[in-house]
Amino acid sequence: LLLLLLLLKLLFFCCLIIFSCAPFQSRPGQEWPHSQTGPLAAGRNGGSRGFQRVKRGWVWNQFFVLEEYMGSDPQYVGKLHTDLDKGDSAVKYTLSGDGAGTIFTIDQITGDIHALRSLDREVKPYYTLRAQAVDIETNRPLEPESEFVIKVQDINDNEPKFLEGPYTASVPEMSPVGTYVMKVTATDADDPTYGNSARVVYSILHGQPYFSVDPKTGVIRTALPNMDREMKELYQVLIQAKDMGGQLGGLAGTTTINITLSDVNDNPPRFSKSIFHLRVPESSAVGSAVGRIKAHDLDIGKNAEVEYNIVPGDGGAMFDITTNEHNQEGIIMLKKPLDYETKKAYTFKVEASNAHLDPRFHNFGPFKDTATVKINVLDVDEPPVFSKPSYAMDVYEDTPQGTIIGAVTAQDLDAGNSPSDLDSFFDIDPVRGTISTNELLDRESIAQHNISVVATKVNNPVLTSKVAVTVHVLDINEFPPELAMPYETFVCESAKVGQVIQVISARDQDLPQAGQKFSFKSPQEGVKTKNFTIRDFGNNTAGVMTLRGGFKRRSQEIYHLPVVIEDGGLQTLSSTGTLTIRVCGCDTDGSLLTCSAEAIFLPVGLSTGALIAILVCIVILLVIVVLYVGVRRQKKKETLMTSKEDIRDNVIHYDDEGGGEEDTHAFDMGTLRNPKVIKENMFRRDVKPELGLCPRRPVASQNSADISNFISLRLQEHEGDTSAPPYDSLATYAYEGEGSVAESLSSIESVKGETEEDYDYLNEWGPRFKTLAGIFGERSETDHDLDFKLWWKEF
After folding, report:
1. What dihedral do alpha carbons 113, 114, 116, 117 form, nearest 10°?
2. Contact indicator for 585, 525 with CB cutoff of 8 Å
3. H or E segment and range at residue 296
4. Hey, which residues does 474 pair with through a beta bridge?
5. Residues 523-540: tens digit of each pLDDT
6. Which residues are paired to 576 by β-bridges?
7. d(Cα 578, Cα 608) in Å, to the nearest integer?
8. Which parts of the sequence belong to the Cadherin domain (predicted)?
9. CB 648 within 8 Å of CB 746
10. How far is Cα of residue 494 from the mean position of the Cα atoms in its chain?
């Protein structure tokens, strides 16, 4: 059979080769195959350089080559030919594009195209190449380049594959026939447009008769009705996908599908037996579990959840039942105490039903079951029972030893005390159960005793009962009251008559049942004191009230006031306390200022802190005044002449740097140059004129015969000027004197003549004076003379 299949496959390949090669055999009259766009061809004579359309023998656009060719020789693809090829080997064919020279080759003389190696259509389905005919000698193109396609012809060499397998699916149990399960898809890498190589057909190899598959779509559906999960839950289905339309010789692939039947509530709960027998001791506590029963459900999950209920009847009042969520058991609980002597057995019915019902399966019958429960009560030897759950007793403190304060009783009691539970203050009669004091009690030490009494059964000492007994120690009046705290009381010197200066209260170590009740009074009731008295407010407090005014610390600073305090016990006790009252100074609203005796001599209304603050302020002001006076004196000293050799100049120095020669805001340079331009009533620019200060009249010095007198007058006037500024100023007296190398710089002499002066000699003084020489060289004669003399004076 295998050999027959190989022969059939070989025969099929041969047919495909013959079919693919037949259209490309040259026939008489066929020309060069051209593209559908109709490229231009060379002239038939071959000598013309122009192109013209020529008649096409036939139209082509693609070749075919068989994939997976296994022959020993290159596979023939096709033949290219042009009308210009006369068979004289004058035309050469060239090939370029995808795989040219590596996969495909062309005979340059004949135009035959061959495939050099085996091709796989699934790797590359087609190749685009370009062919051209050129003159073999000149390589001149005879026709334009033409493009064509070589398609790889498919063979059935790929089987269908399930890319996502194996698969898992589920379908509800008891589903009808044809219920959709899932869809599977197989892919075939072969060419779906050529033959049946990629046409897949699905079939079931394993899984019938439970499921079916659509041959074309691969949809899997149920094939049998009422498949029961409780019978079989998991199914394994084997699906086959075969190409060639499922025909003989086609390739096939398989996959596995695991199909699970999901549960539905199609089974009711069922008790394993109809009667359950339980036994419970009569001593069981209320709320305890008596027993467990269970109804089994074949379903799973929420479909197997069971609800239990006791059918109303005999045991409905004594018992209850709940469901254990983990194992779905019914737990029977005790609702009331049991007594074997009263009733020895109980019988009732329990019903089990599903919590979640499916209406599709109501016709299967009722989804519930019933069972009978019989409970037998067991007799037990019970411990003694006290008549009360707890006891409370009262006893006065200081009660004599051995006094009976109460008793406890129990049924079936052979009473005995447990020394570990009773403290040393009490004792108990083991037969009668009476409790008596064993020591003197003190409420102020322990106000309440908590003891336990244990009752033991005579014939069974293991059975015991315990009860709590609380003993309250009652108070007796044994301590007198006293002041609640040591009060610090003061009275203002400005206090008025009848003013309450202190509120007092009391305390008592006793604790009477009716509560504390105190009264306050002066020691000599009815006799009025001169200074203070006690007023009882009736609410366990009292006030200290003044009886006069005009308290003075100089007369008496401290007063002592006794206070009598009584309690409200059956046997009244009292005590006397003393209040110390100090006389203090207060402000207008009654707030305390000071109570010290030294403060008597302080000014009224000022505290010590205020006086210290005032003194500090006065000291600071004095320091500021001293510093100010010192600064003023220092400035006056700085205004004196710094040079006593030349009394004609008075230069006042300070640390600020001036603006230089061009700063003309502080001085009137014209006045310095020529005293003749000084006008009357002109104020100085460098100081702010004072109101009421009369301007100085300049002394006419132009025509004065004695220049020295003029300078002396100017000097006296300047020294007596109180408005002179405390900063740089230059006073020019217009008289240089005799013996000066620079001669006179006076503006008075400079006005006598208008002669020009040559400043070239400044260049001879060095580089420092070059800039000055250039400035004065461009000015007028008079201005140059005055500016230079001023600069020289400053220099």
Report:
1. 120
2. no
3. strand 289-296
4. 396
5. 875 555 688 888 888 888
6. 564
7. 32
8. 82-162, 163-271, 272-386, 387-483, 483-601
9. no
10. 65
Six-digit token string for 485 = 């705290």
Structure tokens at 442: 């003190």
**DSSP states of 471-490 as a string?**
EEEEP---S--EESS---EE
The neighbouring-strand residues paired with 520 are 565
Contact 209, 170 (CB under 8 A): no
- Whole-angstrom Cα distance, residue 673 to residue 786? 5
**What number of CA atoms fall less than 13 Å from residue 527's CA on the CB side?**
2
- Give DSSP secondary structure letters for 49-110: -SEE----S-B--EEEEETT---SSPEEEEE---TT--SSS-EEEEEEETTBTTTEEE-TTT
Question: What does the block give as tokens for 434?
Answer: 């009476």
What Å distances lie between residue 172 and 175, 259, 262, 605, 691, CA to CA?
A: 6, 10, 5, 103, 120
Structure tokens at 500: 């309450």
Is 586 in a helix, a strand, or coil? strand
For residues 45 and 38, the answer to whether their CB atoms sit within 8 Å is: no
Name the one residue in this structure whose structure tokens are 């004599």: 400
Pair type for strands 62-66 and 104-106? unpaired
Q: pLDDT tens, 203-257?
A: 999 988 999 999 999 999 999 998 999 899 999 999 999 998 888 888 999 999 9
The dihedral through the CA atoms of 436, 442, 445, 448 has a sign that is positive
Amino acid at 674: N
Least confident range of 406-410, 624-628, 790-794: 790-794
User: Among residues 348, 339, 353, 294, which one has the least CA distance to residue 317?
Assistant: 348
What sign for the dihedral angle of Cα 83, 88, 91, 97? positive
Residue 135 token pair: 């003159």
Place of tokens 């026709």: 143
The residues that bridge with 294 in the sheet, in sequence order, are: 329
Give the pLDDT of residue 638: 58
pLDDT of the residue at 101: 86
Q: Are 745 and 792 in contact (CB under 8 A)?
A: yes
